[in-house]
Amino acid sequence: MSQSTDDTKSQSSILRNEKFDEVHIITSSINKIDIDSDNLKGFELYEKGQDLYKGDEFDEEEKKSYSKVLRKVDTRLLPLLCVTYTLQFLDKLSLNYAAAYGLKEDLNLTGNRYSWCAAIFNFGYLFWAIPGNYLIQRFPVGKYTGFMLFSWSIILIGHVGLKNYGGALVIRFILGMFEASISPSCMALCGMFYTTKQSPLRQNIFLSFNGWATIIGALLSFGLGHAENSSLPSWKLIFLVIGLLNFVWSIIFTWLCPNSPETAKFLTEEEKIVLIKHIAKNNQGMKDHKFKIHQALEALKDLNVLMLAAIGLASGVINGGSSNFASTLIKGFGFNGITTSALQLPLGAIEVIFVLVAGIITFTIKNTRLYVLFGSCIAPLGGLIGLYVIPLEHKWNLVACAWFMYIIGVVVVSCFNLLTNNVAGTSKKTVSNGLFFLFYATGNIIGANIFYARQAPRYESGILGLLISYVGIMVLSILIRLLLMKRNNDRNKLAGQQTEEQAQQAILNGFKGMTDFENKGFRYAL
Questions:
Q1: CB-based burial of residue 134 (10 Å sphere; 0-12 exposed, 13-18 middle, 19+ buried)?
Q2: Domain span at residue 428?
């Protein structure tokens, strides 16, 4: 009995090694001339990984090695992304907090001038959305992001010198330019270091820190609002403190952040091999610094990319309205500046909870990204309807409804996940991300300008605009899922059940820099 079992295991081992040899022939016979120089280093490390772990008999060893590497990547990369996201969202909220402490009065922001100060940030963001994504492709992403962090810290500190409306418009436009690259660079880093299964949870974790930023910002503005002996007014102190925090962090980030798995100094050669062997299964290769026009044109014709850009527009409208007018809205219900700041604390807590729960669902239940996207719109819809119909005398009920406005973070990070996992080809990804953030910035401009001062405190036009945007996102999420299901089904019908050799060829096509259209072994995450 024992002898028979041993023979069976031996035969199984031989068959597995034969299968490995067949797969290894594919990797060995590939013409490296077909692989761009940017991808070549990653491919060579991938080949070493194929040699290092042959067949299933090494699965346990490989699993242990990869778990160790993954913990190391999480320990280095996640804190960098989380703190960066906290600070960049604090920057965006700084105008909102400053508005509660005399900014409007000191700079004579009467009528719709405050709305334009909020909107001009997004004009800068819009202006730099495409160039910023291009530079992320061309330059080492860690160093480029560090430079952006440093630059906007100086600009934030410069807000202390503001004297009038014109100066506010100029400095807010420049700030928007320098912040336009942060989300795309964080997406790029996440896509390079994690598999398709792992990246959604990590992206949700660092984006949930927008919620922590809301909590920290509310506490910070609450504390600075009580500063009575300062030579600076409270609103200037808010910009100064946030700017200094960014300045210190820019130095730390530039020093610690890796540019890619192949060049990460905190990983050993063997750890790089193990990591790249696993992330190669994304079928996207490594980062390609050469911009390819045909991939850019493909992005413009991809219905999936265009619908995600439309969601970017809608989510921008929601974010532009809620982030810039939360203070004004709550204050209009009959609260003073200090109480208004305190009442924004639950906004951040709600966003943290919803974004993390969404990430856990996406990570644990396969192909639920678009279900999560659809479901995340339900609670905000209810809150906005409440803001529209509840009588103004019930101010605490109105505040509770306003708290659900910030769940937009789940929508945004769901789009991050879909763009990271469902678009292949570095140039196509550059244009796809650029389009999303271009439309997102446009939406923010619209959102900041549909809250008319004459409609205070109800702001009917603004609330209606946010309602329409959420409904549009729900419809588009259904359409995207149907489209991607059709693409996967069509490829499965042509290729049949994907074999190990076909899966291996899809990985190699990724190293060749193929797009998701060109690489027929690519399958879309739902």
A1: middle
A2: 58-259+288-511
In a domain, 30, yes or no: no
Q: Which residues contact 227 (CB under 8 A, 6 or more apart)?
A: 234, 237
Query: Is 86 inside any structural domain?
Result: yes
Domain membership of residue 87 (yes or no) is yes
Count up the domains in the chain and report the number.
Answer: 1
pTM score of the predicted model:
0.83
Query: Would you report the helix, strand and coil content of the chain in percent, each value rounded to 5?
Result: 80, 0, 20
Q: Are 421 and 365 in contact (CB under 8 A)?
A: no
CATH number of the CATH domain containing 140: 1.20.1250.20
Provide CB contacts within 8 A for 278, sequence distance 6+. 66, 195
pLDDT digits (tens, 9 = 90+) for 32-67: 556 666 666 666 667 776 666 654 344 677 778 888
Which single residue is written with the structure tokens 């504390």? 223
* Other beta carbons less than 10 A from residue 281's beta carbon: 15
Distance (Å, whole) CA 259 – CA 141? 5
User: Which position has the token pair 């418009």?
Assistant: 169
pLDDT digits over 331-383, tens only? Answer: 778 777 777 767 777 777 788 888 899 999 998 998 999 999 999 999 888 88
- Residue 323 near residue 93 (C-beta atoms within 8 A): yes
* CA–CA distance, 191 with 136 (Å, rounded to integer): 13
Place of tokens 């609450």: 222
Distance between CA atoms of 515 and 193, rounded to whole angstroms? 19
Helix, strand or coil, per DSSP, at residue 390: coil
Cβ atoms of 323 and 451 closer than 8 Å: no
List the one residue out of 205, 138, 133 whose CA is nearest residue 437: 133
Residue 205, in any domain of the structure: yes
Q: How many other CB atoms are there within 10 angstroms of residue 482's CB atom?
A: 11
Contacts of 28 (CB under 8 A, 6+ apart): 47
Structure tokens at 135: 């530079």
What tokens appear for 111 in the block?
Answer: 């009528």
